[in-house]
Amino acid sequence: MPVPFTADDTTRLWDTFDQVVADGAAPGGVLAYGTTTTSPHFLSAGKVAPECGDAEPGRDTLYDIASLTKVVATWPLLGQALEAGLLDLDAPIRDFLPPMNGETPSGEATVRRLIAHTSGLRASTRLDHYRGSDLLLHELLCREPLEDSPGRHRYINRGYILLGLALSHIHGRPLDQLAEALWQRLGMDATVYGPVARTPKVAPTEQRIPGAPRIWGAPHDDNAGLLGGIAGHAGVFSTPTDLAVYAQQLLAAHADGDRHGLGEWLHASLVPQAPIEPGLDRGLSWILAAGGRVAYHHGFTGTSLYLAPDTGRYLVICTNAIYGGNARTKIAPLRALALKTISAT
Predict the structure, then answer these.
(1) pLDDT tens digits, residue range 121-138?
(2) What percent of the chain has pLDDT over 90?
(3) Per-residue pLDDT, 35
(4) What is the DSSP string of 77-143?
(5) Distances (CA, A) of 40 to 242, 313, 315, 330
(6) What are the residues whose beta carbons fall under 8 Å from the beta carbon of 85, sequence distance 6 or more?
(7) Does 259 have pLDDT greater than 90?
(8) What is the CA radius of gyration of the chain?
(9) pLDDT by residue (tens digit) across 92-104?
(10) How far is CA 307 from the centre of its chain?
């Protein structure tokens, strides 16, 4: 049976969340939490942003989820493609991209290594450096030399850009259309690749140039922006409600059998692929903690998604903490408590 959150759990989460917002780590945000057998609960704090007036964040506020795109779009689509026999985890990514001529050292990275951030590809991704080239993006990426020996963990966005391009190629459809079809089947009606309209229900992110408007409705990630907002590593906007629905679907599939091709894929993804640091391993996309009992991922803008399959619990953090600068340091206390809470048995 799923283990519900206790009153002490929610009190500690609320107190820390409220303090983080009061300290200026984010204009505001929403926590969503629950189990596979209960309706989601929501805690909100602060305002959406000064640009949105008195609008308070709620369960339907749309957030740029940044690198949560990896586990909300690319990862489930990869699982479905593997189940359909369209991909092979241990084959090089070049096998699933349009034909290329010449040597492609980065194209020899296997699908598994790209998913697990152990490919050895260049960690820095600057798609603006490719402006004016006659080659297609997948070939430009694959022709790049490796920066490290394969096998060591190093977080690499360009691997997920390649995975997104591969998904589009093997299906013959754009990545956003593939993702939209998946989200509709899962009941995630508000989740979408950006850009989206600027409204008080959409959380603005960072101001890049003093005096200029903030990024609002467009992806914060520069490389996703250069790809029209549609990429395998970033670009998705979602709500606390939709992320709660997604978490419930994944946990239910893990517990009760396959749903939409995700049950066995989540099982496989909870197997450690490489150590990150003591106590943390990288699975397939997900970070694994608490001896593999918890899987989670962060988004650079200030979002997080935590799953505890053994207890049937999930926790979602939606903030636009990047509004005031580096989100990772400012909301670290909230993320640390979220991991501690979800890891409890």
Answers:
(1) 999 999 999 999 999 999
(2) 94
(3) 96
(4) HHHHHHHTTS--TTSBGGGGSS---S--GGGGSBHHHHHTT-S---S---GGGGTT-SS-HHHHHHH
(5) 10, 10, 9, 26
(6) none
(7) no
(8) 19
(9) 999 999 999 999 9
(10) 13
pTM of the full structure:
0.97
Residue in 125, 120, 339, 93 with CA at minimum distance from that of residue 231: 125
Identify residue 38 by its one-letter amino acid code: T
In order of 17, 159, 210, 281, the CA distances from 152 in angstroms are 34, 14, 39, 11
Pairing of strands 280-282, 274-277: antiparallel
Q: What angle do CA 308, 311, 314 make, to 5 degrees?
A: 45
Question: pLDDT by residue (tens digit) across 230-256?
Answer: 999 999 999 999 999 999 999 999 998
CATH numbers and ranges of domains, the chain: 7-68+176-343 (3.40.710.10), 75-175 (1.20.58)
Distance CA 121, CA 143 (A): 11
Find out whether 119 and 145 touch, Cβ atoms under 8 Å: no
Direct distance between the N- and C-terminal alpha carbons of the chain, in angstroms, rounded to an integer: 12
Average pLDDT, the chain: 96
What three-state secondary structure class fits 63?
Answer: strand
